[in-house]
Specification:
The protein has 292 residues and is of the alpha/beta class. The protein has 14 helices and 5 strands. Strand 4 (214-220), helix 12 (225-229) and strand 5 form a beta-alpha-beta unit. Helix 2 crosses helix 5 (58-67), helix 7 (101-121) crosses helix 13 (248-271) and helix 10 runs parallel beside helix 11.
Length: 292
């Protein structure tokens, strides 16, 4: 995971810890647990003091910061401090059998807003700028996803077509491979996988890299097989994806993915605003012609 530049708003320390908590080794998990339970004490501690308080060591604290993709313990403390100065996100609430219509509407809305807010806290603006620049200059953009991620890929294709981009959205690995086989250096292969472990998506990005084609990934926060194959990694919040009978987490994670695609598209549009206006006018005329 790439580090942020110094102009980036320093928030999201607690979210990052929560996102990767289950995947941390034991010593780092002990540090993380102490921070989550005692954030105020953590921000006023040195690495050595936090190591002692958590029953570990200063080395474990530094390793945790590295696992979070941060420059060091000072940055983590700044981010946690920023989190504590902002209103806390509403807690995730699972859907239970026999819920009333009012409760379903209230819980789903609350969970979706929380997932989007937590995703925004994970945004690395240096990386985001790289992704936008790659999409702006790409002659062709190939979006790829399997299952629910395939729906996100189709949404992305529909959006970027409005910028007169040669775009495709694949869920079939063989069709995608045929397009990538003839890819050019400035093309972009954009892999979408919430888990970051979807085998087909990993192979698509691996093939693209072998062909010298630029790659972007959109996954849950943290290192994964997909992120290891991508040149540019974008993330969504993973903490909402909690197994439940109604898979409510899957709904929240999908909305977070759509939100990131919207951020990328609007960023490209604003960077090429005059062109976008022209393309939109041509699209309007074409649609009106088809209605006539």
């Amino acid at each position: 995971m790439e580090n942020e530049n110094q102009n980036t708003s320093l928030i999201g320390g607690l979210v990052r810890i929560d996102e990767v908590f289950d995947r941390l080794p034991p010593s780092e998990k002990k540090v993380a647990l102490y921070i989550l339970k005692h954030p105020h004490e953590a921000i006023y501690s040195t690495a050595s003091e936090l190591g002692r308080l958590s029953g570990t060591s200063s080395a474990a604290v530094i390793r945790l910061c590295k696992s979070l993709g941060l420059k060091g313990f000072p940055e983590l403390k700044f981010r946690i401090s920023g989190d504590l100065q902002k209103p806390a996100d509403l807690p995730y609430r699972d859907i239970q059998p026999g819920e009333t219509q009012y409760s379903i509407v209230d819980k789903l809305t609350s969970n979706s807003i929380t997932a989007i807010r937590e995703t925004v806290k994970l945004v690395n603006y240096t990386t985001l700028n790289k992704a936008v620049d790659a999409l702006i200059h790409a002659p062709k953009i190939h979006f790829f996803g399997v299952g629910a991620s395939g729906i996100i890929a189709q949404d992305a294709q529909q959006k970027f077509l409005r910028m007169n981009k040669a775009t495709s959205a694949f869920t079939d690995v063989h069709n995608a491979a045929m397009y990538i086989a003839n890819g050019e250096k400035e093309d972009v292969v954009f892999g979408i996988s919430f888990s970051g472990e979807t085998k087909e998506t990993v192979k698509m990005l691996e093939l693209a890299r072998k062909k010298g084609v630029k790659t972007i990934s959109l996954t849950r926060y943290g290192t994964s097989s997909v992120t290891e194959q991508a040149d540019i990694n974008l993330f969504t919040s993973a903490s909402r994806e909690i197994p439940a009978p109604f898979r409510n987490g899957a709904t929240s994670s999908r909305l977070a993915q759509l939100h990131m695609i919207d951020i990328l598209f609007v960023s490209v549009v604003t960077a090429r605003y005059e062109e976008a206006v022209g393309y939109q006018e041509e699209i309007r005329r074409a649609v009106e012609f088809m209605k006539g």
